[in-house]
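Practice set, problem 2.
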Amino acid sequence: MSTPTIGVLALQGDVREHVAALAAAGAAARPVRRPEELEEVDGLVIPGGESTTMSKLAVIFGLLEPLRAFVRSGRPVYGTCAGMIMLADKLLDGRADQETLGGIDMIVRRNAFGRQNESFEAAVEIAGIEGGPVEGVFIRAPWVESVGGGAEVLARHDGHTVAVRQGNVLATSFHPELTGDHRVHALFVGMVRDHLAGGARPARP
């Protein structure tokens, strides 16, 4: 079985936890901070953090357009929490100057589950993941207001969509890297392996 190389965008957020979870799921993981480092990885994780800050830092470091090109290239991308916001085609409650990468035909509402002191954990059933629900850690988490025809809803919590996939792009509202359960990362590593083997689902144009 191949060992894919997966980058973790290291502008902000829980980078080390994602690197550890990806390694436990069978990938070689490394932080990515410069445009040229994107060319060295087979897939990319965009971690949680603060989405407006992440957007500004991507512009400052010259990463915004290279990241958009990475998504368009069809290489797999997984975003958690703020990463989900970055992968949305449209935002609600975003700053007027806030940039996203796009990649999933969805409308996302920032901080939809509440403020930092309203963070919580909940069991989440995810389509395509066996072994029962995963424990989702929701920290100032977004939810998906609506999805377009190309996007597949994988999970809901309390009636709200919290996990979505479109082609090779995956996003969750919650933080699986904080739980010690690596099944969501294993799902993503499998997506990267499939892409390398030529068996991935087609990416959106």
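Problem 2, part (b): a different protein.
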Amino acid sequence: MKADFLISVLNDVDTAARINREKASNIVLQNPKLVKNLVEFTFDVDNKLSIKAAWVLEWICTHHGIENILRYLDAFTEKLAQVHFDSALRPCAKICEQLATAYASKTDNEVKQKLTKQQIDLIIETGFDWLITDQKIAVKAYTMNTLYLLGLQKDWVHPELEYIIRTKVIHESKGCKARGKKIMSLIQKRSSS
């Protein structure tokens, strides 16, 4: 019943317009058990409904708190690499960036307590895959930031990230180039301090 209800909610999301994502996320949050189904639909990667599920999941995480996904971090991180629709990749990359931002925060929070080393490794591995494959600018921009933030805890990440930016990203679009330069500047600033 819950899954069928969520399918009807997602089918009502015509576009990624703010009002559509907000309305669907409010419905899901009124029935918190639906978040699990939303994560499952996001990773039903050969179903176009996964795109709408990813839009709504990202809206929930960005506007109602990243804590909403914490119970489902295993499913999220283990299946992240399977996402292949462009319109689902961007929201997943943004959720990864939010997780990394919370994890790198100087203040204690629930993400720091719940995000495991294995989950971090899966996010990093998928992030590097996204950077070296043909992805949209937004996915690469969110991913570079995610990898920079997670690299604050894992020494090997920054040198690899810097290498990929220098050899690949810097030769792509103006947006990728600009974000790459910003991230390289942060890495260099950190290594010189």
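Answer key, part (b): The mean pLDDT is 94. The chain has eleven helices and no strands.
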